[in-house]
Amino acid sequence: MPFSKKINKEATPKRVYAFLKLVEYKEMTKYELEKYLQPKELNKGNNTPFTAVYSFVERANLIEIDKDFGESITLNNIESSDLKDWDSYRKFMAKLLLSNENSNFLKFTSWYLQQEKEVFNYSSSKEIQKHLSGDIDTLIEDDILGWRFWASFLGIGFLSGGIIIPNTYQRIRDVLEEDLSIKRDIEIPFEEFMQKILIKCKEFKSCINGNNINFGISNGLRTLHDQKLIQLIKTSDSTDIWHLYRTEHEILEDVTSIKINRW
Question: Which of 1, 97, 221, 245 is the most buried (most CB within 10 A)?
């Protein structure tokens, strides 16, 4: 599994996508792919962008080598429909990278979301690294730099000034687009909604404390509400009240139910 321990900053979402699209287009050997994807002047030893990307797709088991056909490379465990556009690719990669709770990628994502507004005190990836502990304290500055590209791509937040501003709007939207079991156009209890979201978004689990929802997830829900993709509702006589991270907004804090609109 890629990024289970280290997060190579050279294996960016765009580079991995370009590699997979090229393999989809035509079967080639590793050497031929490298010629297409990496100019000769960048071939400096083993630590190159192509090497990083190849290692990523190999560890993800997204390619296979046909030993009987000149060692040409073909796609494996990924369909053309997963590569048809940027949105489809993002949803596929979210399932790949955010499903293994033992991976450092998911552990660091959860840790980062738990920091809430504290992230604004981190001026750089180097500064973030100083605050790591436990299983993820082995991550170095370059790992965090690599994580930023994927976190922004997967919808964990927005990249700004060297940090990811937590806002899970895109992540939640992707889940809603794929999980059609979540009822549309009718008001449902907010607890029912959150139970379904937490099944799909394992990185959110440590960000919910009882009925309290942290900063990044609250930002995502409010953004979806503002774009009229969902409606956050507070019913005065309800006893099951959930609490968003308090901020100046139409939805100040309390929520009891939600309506998912069709789009």
Answer: 221
